[in-house]
Amino acid sequence: METAVAQKAESNSLASKFVRGSTAIFAGRVISLVLKFFIQVLIVRYLSKSDFGAFAYALNMVDIAQIVVLIALDNAAARFIPIYDEQKDYDSLFGFIILSLVSIIGLGAATTLFFIAGRGLLSGILISDDVALSVVIILIALGPLEALDSWFQSLFAGFGTVRAIFFRRYILWPMLQMIAVVIVLLLRSDVYWLSIGYLVGGAMGTVLYALMSYNLLRRKKVLQHFHWKTIKFRPGEIFGFSVPMFLTGLGFLVRSQLAIVLLAFFRGTVAVAEYRAVQPVVALNSVVYTSFALLYLPVASRLFARKDTSGINKLFWQGAAWIAITSFPVFLVTFSLASPLVKLLFGEQYASSAIIMTIAAFGTYFNSVMGFNKDTLRAYNKVKYLMFVDFTVVAAALISFFVFMPVFGAVGAAISYTLAIVFNNILYHIGLVKHAGIKVFEPEYLPIYTLIAVFAAGLSIVQWLFSPSLFITVPLAAVLSLIVLRVSAPRLQMDEYFPELSKVPVLKNLLHIGVVQKSESGVAGIEADSGL
């Protein structure tokens, strides 16, 4: 009996750390996205449509290089680092770190050299636009650098440390990008110098992240266990997990990055510009999801190691509810108010991108509110099922690309993107119920999801019928979001996760937060590193 109570208390403690730490990361992502959003607007308005399309295409190739070089070793870090740390198996931990870094650096160097040496081969086959290809050659080394960044980020997340991620990922890197853009604007330079600025900023950030990682291991007193003679290399276990995870990530690679490559092939860089211009805005729908995802897999892996299925179920549905509710304001604006928003941000020349934003925003928000189905299956190591799902979705996505893109261009890319996301999540959720024992749905959240659907549809109808000004619809969207938050607040367990909010009268009344005593669930025991 005492063991069960202690296990429940510990799982509650991890859930609390998960929500509080994820909220800190969310705050960092908001700052980062505001900066990147401003950067995007500056670049779109400064460069010609074709030059922006070339730059966006090159950044897309950087994303592909990052995914290929990383081969999901960031996911492996999120799973194995907390497990090895929990088991005090430091010899395997250091073996994992060394194998990962050698793999990423080696694959990164090979990828960069391939693009530089093979420029003549790639010209006309990959893309016929000389400007786009030149920018790709300049930026391609940024892919391996960002792969290292992602791995270092998972290292910090595996040890439950948020502050360093907050500074490096969400403050420093956007500021370096901002500096590069401002210099280009002041000097009236071209897209080539903009690319060089991005590359230099990425290199500076990666060096800093490496130094911060060394300090983390020293501060956590992990380095004192390092001994060359006792290091355990487990390539079978590590790559046996990461490579299948990379293969299961092909669905994301196809519907996101490969879609841009095919769009450029079918319709040219102008179509790429129409699609990529709104992507950073659409991505705001996933900022809460990606913030919580960073800590979800390490926490779920610890609960899996303890065989705490009920704890994982609670973690899953609490995370899904937080994501659906906190992402709702962004969804309202990007889905229901896409047309006036696009014209305001990018001008009339990008008016055709409004329908792209609407379709893609629905798909991105749907992916967010479905919760961490894939990461939960990763924690349970259901690799075969994940591979089956992703290969099935890849095949379906490729078919849809060749059906919709030649006819509808960038709009067809958005349609294919959203269809792939919906299909992917349905299959993941089936596996979640079958293999992980997670409930198919928690009835207590039904009123919240119903209210979200009704409000989004209602605001869309108002915009379509009357075309009111954003000065009217944005405040209306804010009111609808507050209503959803008010209704759902009791189910978010604010008292448990953020008892300090009870000291703020307005928030206390709005969110139904009462003064609660810190229990043995571990709210009082949150590490300093879990917050700001």
Protein topology:
Elements: H1 2-46, H2 49-70, H3 73-87, H4 90-117, H5 119-122, H6 130-139, H7 142-158, H8 163-187, H9 191-219, H10 235-248, H11 250-267, H12 269-277, H13 279-282, H14 287-305, H15 309-336, H16 338-346, H17 354-369, H18 373-379, H19 383-408, H20 410-436, H21 446-466, H22 470-488, H23 494-497, H24 505-510
Helix pairs in contact: 1-8, 1-14, 1-15, 2-4, 2-6, 2-7, 2-11, 2-12, 3-4, 3-7, 3-10, 3-14, 4-7, 6-9, 7-9, 7-14, 8-9, 10-19, 11-12, 11-19, 11-20, 12-20, 14-15, 14-18, 15-17, 15-21, 15-22, 16-17, 17-20, 18-20, 19-20, 21-22
Could you explain the architecture of this structure?
With 532 residues, this protein is mainly α. The protein has a domain of 202 residues. It is 79% helix and 0% strand. It is built from 24 helices and no strands. Helix 11 packs across helix 12 and helix 16 crosses helix 17. The longest helix is centred in the first third of the chain and has 45 residues. It is globular. 47% of the residues are buried.
